[in-house]
Amino acid sequence: MSRHLAAMRPKVRPRVRATLAGALVLGVGATMTLASWTDSEFGAGTFAATVFNTQSSVDAGTSYADNTPTAATMSFNSLGMSPSTQRYASLLVRTKPNSVAGTLSLGGATIAPAGTDETLILGAALRYRVVNTTATCDATAFTGSPSWVIGPVVSVLTAGAAGTVAVAAATASAGAPTGLCFEVSLPAGAANTLQGKSTIDTWQVTATSS
Protein backbone atom coordinates (compact mmCIF):
# COMPACT_ATOMS: atom_id res chain seq x y z
CA MET A 1 0.00 0.00 0.00
CA SER A 2 2.83 2.41 0.85
CA ARG A 3 4.53 1.67 -2.44
CA HIS A 4 1.37 2.52 -4.31
CA LEU A 5 1.06 5.93 -2.56
CA ALA A 6 4.73 6.70 -3.16
CA ALA A 7 4.28 6.01 -6.82
CA MET A 8 1.37 8.41 -7.09
CA ARG A 9 3.00 11.46 -5.36
CA PRO A 10 5.09 12.71 -8.33
CA LYS A 11 1.97 12.83 -10.47
CA VAL A 12 0.09 15.09 -7.99
CA ARG A 13 2.78 17.77 -7.60
CA PRO A 14 2.88 18.89 -11.27
CA ARG A 15 -0.87 19.44 -11.25
CA VAL A 16 -0.65 21.66 -8.15
CA ARG A 17 2.13 23.76 -9.66
CA ALA A 18 0.20 24.18 -12.88
CA THR A 19 -2.85 25.34 -10.96
CA LEU A 20 -0.85 27.91 -8.97
CA ALA A 21 0.83 29.26 -12.09
CA GLY A 22 -2.54 29.69 -13.72
CA ALA A 23 -3.77 31.66 -10.72
CA LEU A 24 -0.80 34.03 -10.97
CA VAL A 25 -1.40 34.69 -14.63
CA LEU A 26 -5.04 35.49 -14.00
CA GLY A 27 -4.09 37.91 -11.19
CA VAL A 28 -1.73 39.95 -13.41
CA GLY A 29 -4.25 40.08 -16.21
CA ALA A 30 -6.94 41.57 -13.94
CA THR A 31 -4.59 44.37 -12.81
CA MET A 32 -3.61 45.47 -16.37
CA THR A 33 -7.20 45.86 -17.59
CA LEU A 34 -8.32 48.39 -14.92
CA ALA A 35 -9.27 51.92 -16.38
CA SER A 36 -10.82 55.27 -15.31
CA TRP A 37 -13.57 57.42 -16.80
CA THR A 38 -12.45 60.92 -17.89
CA ASP A 39 -14.23 64.19 -18.49
CA SER A 40 -13.10 67.82 -19.28
CA GLU A 41 -14.32 71.36 -18.64
CA PHE A 42 -13.16 74.47 -20.56
CA GLY A 43 -13.21 78.20 -19.78
CA ALA A 44 -12.82 80.92 -22.45
CA GLY A 45 -12.38 84.71 -22.19
CA THR A 46 -13.08 87.39 -24.78
CA PHE A 47 -10.61 90.28 -24.91
CA ALA A 48 -10.81 93.61 -26.74
CA ALA A 49 -8.39 96.54 -26.84
CA THR A 50 -9.45 100.00 -25.72
CA VAL A 51 -9.58 102.99 -28.07
CA PHE A 52 -7.76 106.29 -27.59
CA ASN A 53 -8.49 109.02 -30.13
CA THR A 54 -8.29 112.79 -29.85
CA GLN A 55 -9.33 115.79 -31.93
CA SER A 56 -8.75 119.51 -31.56
CA SER A 57 -10.35 122.87 -32.13
CA VAL A 58 -8.79 126.28 -32.84
CA ASP A 59 -12.08 128.22 -32.93
CA ALA A 60 -13.10 128.00 -29.25
CA GLY A 61 -14.90 124.69 -29.75
CA THR A 62 -17.15 125.64 -32.66
CA SER A 63 -15.68 122.80 -34.70
CA TYR A 64 -13.31 119.91 -34.06
CA ALA A 65 -11.11 117.95 -36.46
CA ASP A 66 -8.19 115.54 -36.59
CA ASN A 67 -5.50 118.16 -37.05
CA THR A 68 -2.70 115.74 -37.82
CA PRO A 69 -0.29 115.63 -39.54
CA THR A 70 -1.38 119.02 -40.94
CA ALA A 71 -1.61 121.61 -38.17
CA ALA A 72 -4.67 123.81 -37.74
CA THR A 73 -3.97 127.55 -37.82
CA MET A 74 -4.37 129.09 -34.39
CA SER A 75 -5.88 132.58 -34.28
CA PHE A 76 -3.05 134.61 -32.75
CA ASN A 77 -3.76 137.81 -34.73
CA SER A 78 0.00 137.94 -34.80
CA LEU A 79 0.60 140.07 -37.88
CA GLY A 80 2.38 143.30 -37.03
CA MET A 81 4.09 142.20 -33.83
CA SER A 82 6.45 144.72 -32.27
CA PRO A 83 8.81 144.46 -29.29
CA SER A 84 6.92 143.96 -25.99
CA THR A 85 3.68 142.83 -27.67
CA GLN A 86 1.72 139.68 -26.75
CA ARG A 87 -0.69 137.62 -28.80
CA TYR A 88 -3.12 134.95 -27.55
CA ALA A 89 -4.71 131.84 -29.01
CA SER A 90 -6.40 128.73 -27.66
CA LEU A 91 -6.15 125.08 -28.63
CA LEU A 92 -8.86 122.74 -27.31
CA VAL A 93 -8.22 119.01 -27.24
CA ARG A 94 -10.81 116.33 -26.46
CA THR A 95 -11.26 112.59 -26.83
CA LYS A 96 -13.50 111.11 -29.49
CA PRO A 97 -16.55 109.01 -28.51
CA ASN A 98 -15.80 105.75 -26.65
CA SER A 99 -12.19 106.75 -25.96
CA VAL A 100 -10.29 106.17 -22.75
CA ALA A 101 -8.72 109.04 -20.80
CA GLY A 102 -5.15 110.23 -21.22
CA THR A 103 -2.63 113.00 -20.75
CA LEU A 104 -1.24 115.72 -22.99
CA SER A 105 2.34 116.88 -23.36
CA LEU A 106 3.41 119.96 -25.29
CA GLY A 107 6.51 119.90 -27.46
CA GLY A 108 8.66 122.88 -28.35
CA ALA A 109 7.87 124.72 -31.56
CA THR A 110 9.34 123.87 -34.94
CA ILE A 111 10.09 126.83 -37.21
CA ALA A 112 9.34 127.18 -40.92
CA PRO A 113 10.55 127.82 -43.51
CA ALA A 114 13.63 126.19 -42.08
CA GLY A 115 16.01 127.33 -44.83
CA THR A 116 15.77 131.08 -44.13
CA ASP A 117 18.18 132.49 -41.57
CA GLU A 118 16.02 135.53 -40.79
CA THR A 119 13.00 133.31 -40.26
CA LEU A 120 14.91 131.09 -37.84
CA ILE A 121 16.10 134.12 -35.91
CA LEU A 122 12.57 135.54 -35.64
CA GLY A 123 11.08 132.18 -34.71
CA ALA A 124 13.68 131.58 -32.03
CA ALA A 125 13.30 135.13 -30.72
CA LEU A 126 9.66 134.63 -29.83
CA ARG A 127 8.75 133.77 -26.24
CA TYR A 128 5.69 132.01 -24.86
CA ARG A 129 3.83 130.62 -21.89
CA VAL A 130 0.80 128.33 -21.70
CA VAL A 131 -1.94 127.68 -19.14
CA ASN A 132 -4.55 124.96 -18.92
CA THR A 133 -7.97 126.60 -19.16
CA THR A 134 -11.14 126.52 -21.23
CA ALA A 135 -12.01 130.10 -20.24
CA THR A 136 -11.44 133.07 -22.54
CA CYS A 137 -7.85 133.01 -23.74
CA ASP A 138 -6.44 136.47 -23.14
CA ALA A 139 -4.22 138.27 -20.64
CA THR A 140 -6.63 137.53 -17.79
CA ALA A 141 -6.03 133.77 -18.18
CA PHE A 142 -2.51 134.32 -16.86
CA THR A 143 -3.42 136.26 -13.74
CA GLY A 144 -3.98 134.90 -10.23
CA SER A 145 -3.01 131.24 -9.83
CA PRO A 146 -3.40 129.63 -13.26
CA SER A 147 -2.72 125.98 -14.04
CA TRP A 148 0.64 126.31 -15.77
CA VAL A 149 1.69 124.12 -18.68
CA ILE A 150 4.58 126.38 -19.69
CA GLY A 151 5.70 129.15 -17.41
CA PRO A 152 7.30 131.52 -16.74
CA VAL A 153 8.00 133.00 -20.18
CA VAL A 154 10.51 130.89 -22.14
CA SER A 155 11.65 130.43 -25.73
CA VAL A 156 9.02 128.93 -28.02
CA LEU A 157 11.51 126.14 -28.64
CA THR A 158 11.07 124.90 -25.05
CA ALA A 159 8.90 121.83 -24.47
CA GLY A 160 6.58 121.41 -21.52
CA ALA A 161 6.74 118.67 -18.93
CA ALA A 162 5.27 115.38 -20.19
CA GLY A 163 1.95 114.14 -18.92
CA THR A 164 1.01 117.19 -16.85
CA VAL A 165 -2.34 117.91 -18.52
CA ALA A 166 -5.23 115.45 -18.33
CA VAL A 167 -7.72 114.76 -21.11
CA ALA A 168 -11.01 113.18 -20.05
CA ALA A 169 -12.44 109.87 -21.20
CA ALA A 170 -15.46 109.83 -23.50
CA THR A 171 -18.67 107.81 -23.47
CA ALA A 172 -20.99 107.61 -26.48
CA SER A 173 -20.31 111.31 -27.07
CA ALA A 174 -17.01 113.19 -27.19
CA GLY A 175 -15.17 113.91 -23.96
CA ALA A 176 -14.94 117.25 -22.19
CA PRO A 177 -12.33 119.53 -23.78
CA THR A 178 -8.97 120.38 -22.27
CA GLY A 179 -7.87 123.91 -23.11
CA LEU A 180 -4.36 125.15 -23.80
CA CYS A 181 -4.15 128.94 -23.84
CA PHE A 182 -0.98 130.28 -25.49
CA GLU A 183 0.58 133.68 -24.96
CA VAL A 184 3.30 134.42 -27.55
CA SER A 185 5.37 137.58 -27.29
CA LEU A 186 8.21 139.42 -28.97
CA PRO A 187 10.57 140.56 -26.22
CA ALA A 188 11.46 144.18 -25.62
CA GLY A 189 15.06 143.66 -26.77
CA ALA A 190 14.17 142.17 -30.19
CA ALA A 191 16.74 143.08 -32.88
CA ASN A 192 15.93 145.71 -35.51
CA THR A 193 16.89 143.18 -38.18
CA LEU A 194 13.67 141.28 -37.42
CA GLN A 195 11.51 144.06 -38.85
CA GLY A 196 9.24 142.87 -41.65
CA LYS A 197 10.18 139.20 -41.17
CA SER A 198 7.64 136.41 -40.75
CA THR A 199 7.69 132.84 -39.51
CA ILE A 200 5.40 129.89 -38.78
CA ASP A 201 5.88 128.23 -35.42
CA THR A 202 4.17 124.85 -35.00
CA TRP A 203 3.65 123.04 -31.70
CA GLN A 204 2.91 119.36 -31.38
CA VAL A 205 0.60 118.21 -28.60
CA THR A 206 1.17 114.52 -27.89
CA ALA A 207 -1.72 112.63 -26.33
CA THR A 208 -0.99 109.44 -24.37
CA SER A 209 -3.65 107.08 -23.05
CA SER A 210 -3.84 106.43 -19.31
What does this structure look like?
- The protein has 210 residues and is an alpha+beta fold.
- It folds into two domains: 1-34; 54-209.
- Helix content is 19%, strand content 27%.
- The chain has two helices and ten strands, in the order αββββαββββββ.
- It has helices spanning 2-32, 117-125, and strands at 54-57, 85-95, 102-106, 110-112, 127-132, 148-155, 165-167, 178-186, 200-202, 205-209.
- Strands 1-2-8-5-6 form a five-stranded antiparallel beta sheet, with no helix packed on it.
- The radius of gyration is 42 Å and the shape is elongated.
- The relative contact order is 0.21.
- The model is unreliable at 18-28 (pLDDT under 50).
Task: Write the SSE topology.
Blueprint: H1 2-32, E1 54-57, E2 85-95, E3 102-106, E4 110-112, H2 117-125, E5 127-132, E6 148-155, E7 165-167, E8 178-186, E9 200-202, E10 205-209
Antiparallel strand pairs: 1-2, 2-8, 3-7, 3-10, 4-9, 5-6, 5-8
